[in-house]
Input
Amino acid sequence: MRVDLARTIAAVALVLVLGGAPGCSGGMPGGKLYPIRGEVVSITAARNEIVMQHEPIAGFMQGMTMPFPVANRDLLEGIEPGDRVEGVLLVEGARYALVSLAGIPKGTPVATESDS
Ligand SMILES: [Cu+2]
Output
């Protein structure tokens, strides 16, 4: 599924205003977008947060299971635990947030090796 660019840009603008959550990894100065893919472990809609087992993110972090704040609660619509998803992660300094998220076919394997 393709990422909706207009929606992504709107979400990025929102994140820049509201800020994200503290990161588990240092990150880089200035906002940077990373494609991300993984499997949903759990969703805390009340906190706009999703726990994901994500694949290695080239140049940012290795594969792991961790929570991600989402820039917009709408991104969690139709997403359920066990779903394979892909999206875009905005990283700004030590803050990060998912600015885009969409389901991908169930059979898509999730790589957790960090030796990409
Ligand atoms: Cu991580």
